[in-house]
Amino acid sequence: MFVVECHHMRQSKLFSKTRFESPKDEVSKNADLLIRGGFIFKEMAGVYAFLPLGLRVLKKIEKVIREEMNALGGQEVFLTTLQEKELWLKSGRWDDKVVDNWFKSELKNGTQVGLANTHEEALTDIMLSYVNSFRDLPIYAYQIQTKFRNEARAKSGILRGREFMMKDLYSFSKDKKEHDEFYERSKEAYKKVFERVGLGESTYITFASGGSFSKYSHEFQTLTESGEDTIYIDEAKKIAINKEVLNDEVLNELGLRKDTLIERKAIEVGNIFTLGTRFSDALGLKYKDEKGESKQVFMGSYGIGLSRLMGTIVEIFGKEGEMIWPEEVSPFKAHLISLAGNDEEVVKVSEKLYKELTDAGIEILFDDRDMRVGEKFADADLIGIPFRIISSKKTMEKNSFEIKDRVTGEISYLNTEEIIKKYSSR
Amino acid sequence: MFVVECHHMRQSKLFSKTRFESPKDEVSKNADLLIRGGFIFKEMAGVYAFLPLGLRVLKKIEKVIREEMNALGGQEVFLTTLQEKELWLKSGRWDDKVVDNWFKSELKNGTQVGLANTHEEALTDIMLSYVNSFRDLPIYAYQIQTKFRNEARAKSGILRGREFMMKDLYSFSKDKKEHDEFYERSKEAYKKVFERVGLGESTYITFASGGSFSKYSHEFQTLTESGEDTIYIDEAKKIAINKEVLNDEVLNELGLRKDTLIERKAIEVGNIFTLGTRFSDALGLKYKDEKGESKQVFMGSYGIGLSRLMGTIVEIFGKEGEMIWPEEVSPFKAHLISLAGNDEEVVKVSEKLYKELTDAGIEILFDDRDMRVGEKFADADLIGIPFRIISSKKTMEKNSFEIKDRVTGEISYLNTEEIIKKYSSR
Lengths: 426, 426
Hints:
The structure is a homodimer. Chain A is of the alpha+beta class. Chain A has helices spanning 29-36, 52-71, 85-91, 120-127, 176-196, 248-254, 278-283, 306-317, 344-359, 373-383, 393-397, 416-424, and strands at 8-10, 40-44, 47-50, 75-76, 82-84, 103-106, 112-115, 139-148, 163-173, 203-211, 214-223, 229-234, 239-242, 262-276, 286-288, 294-296, 298-305, 318-319, 322-323, 334-339, 364-367, 387-392, 401-405, 411-414. The model of chain A has no long low-confidence stretch (mean pLDDT 95).
């Protein structure tokens, strides 16, 4: 099949540009760096457009999450933004006094509609058409899409958006036992997601308050000073407790001791929750078991905010005027910077390398611009690709290119073949 | 890199089920067949959720469009749904008297917001930050995302949704000449898209009314009796005229004769439009030319409705209780149907083939269900995958499998190796 993926790009063609001043109306590090790097554009508070570089990062995160959800047995769907009032009345969540972050609108005929902030009701309603017998269960369905929350204050950049990208998975199981088994597997899948996007070390599975069907829910909290949540971590055991459940009984149950816990600020990047029969009761989602008896379906929900995850990565890996993306979510695999000046030979060598790398399927951002060296490096610092390939008169004379690993600072000199080998395997 | 794409699926695990009765509240063929096949689920009139099979088709269409837009030099972005009133006041399109299909909502502080039905204003506003000099142009930016239109009546299934999936590209050029060149290239890209999704033969480029900056705009109209538009086609020249511009002057200009034109019903699956300086004037988007003089940016817009395209494909290729997807948008490459009954040997052979095909990276839907033959075929007819692979006692005895091309009706007998060869190359 004919394929034109966009594996590479000339920086001279990229419409977004970096800027060196911080935007005046942003207080969060993530919005500051992402706007300066040309990743996002602020439409209004809590509402950001994704520009080409930003969308590439978001899609890398999306790919990681999709792969892990598929590996978990998830079936991907795409539910609607517009939500029917009647459906949400059944679960008791239509009223703004119950869920206060609704955006609501209306059809031309005056019918009220809401903009989805979550999809328990909608998906449970769909399952009424498809779940009859024990043979139809379990079902795991997920989606990756824009959600809407009418936040009163939105000043944390893409950490807390009025519209934001989210993965939400819902599990439908025959009973608590089947649910619990999946719930445990989902923890492992979540850990893999956070490891792959570079947050493995700083992310703690955190015990938080549950609902009627489970004592705890679990949050995935990434440690950073800019976090809005306060958690108590046990570094050795790599688990944490949310403030709301910190009491002697819980400590005892989890085998933790108060004096080894450390208070830290964190961002909630994911959460998993046992819903039990809360929604299957409200909407009447039942199945017939092996004996022909009618049973309630047992549910769970599993969320990860993609845009919040992207913001968290910037909070962790960003510095003043500088970003280094973790390898798997970097907008490109490597940043090829041509320092040709007006040397036509260097231009030729850089162009040749660009062609050879892109022909080999390696994702390259090529800084082919005729611009001062200092500006090029300052731009590259903001764009944040972890590997930098320099092509200059100096490297040409060595018949090689300079490769810089920005994380370790390590510099090596490789020829084209060696570069292809290095990046094809990653 | 670790990859788990979802190339294959067991039908026993697919949560959606086919249904043989038509839904009572649908009058359109596309909604009828797509609901019966388990592709979509109706939330409310004009608002449909995409279930696993439907989302796969939508993603196939998305892939085709993305590839062609990238080949055209498009840079992908993802703009916001929530739109600021002030911005749209500048272009004069905020008032419901001007644009009557707005959905509007409001922030907690009472600020009115709209849900995007198009993005000329938003993207032009973004370009104010990035376009300064002639060196920054041209720019082609596109996105694929949900749009919202508050349709008064929505009874055409996914042909006319209140929320729907759309690709919209916007071009920013230095002048009309540069614009025209891209506009012509975009026509070719659009033709390729419609060819690849199987609508090439039935889709006509159609002259429609332009605006202040161009006499014509162009629609891509797919012939079908269920279409809402009336066009006049010249079959030999493969062009058409929209009713609104059918007059002697236009006929003369296009070298067409009234008596060779045939009136047909059609669905508008795409359109391209010369915006000129309509929005760059309203928002003040200028650039400095080679002489340092300030000039207005010249714009165009280019739309394709993905969900409408999917609905159109069903209108064209669907029959009563039966669908055949064009190969490139089929949810799976082939449908492997095991007719094992209670023959354990056939089960083994079918499972082995499924594993070998999926290991070879071929997208397979595997009907592994223990169910009557007639039901299996009726389901397969509704799901509409163009190639069917039958594994039965009969084929096992021949040491091969039966392959049916549902378009030509051709039947052949191939072994595993031959099947892999046949589908790996497509």
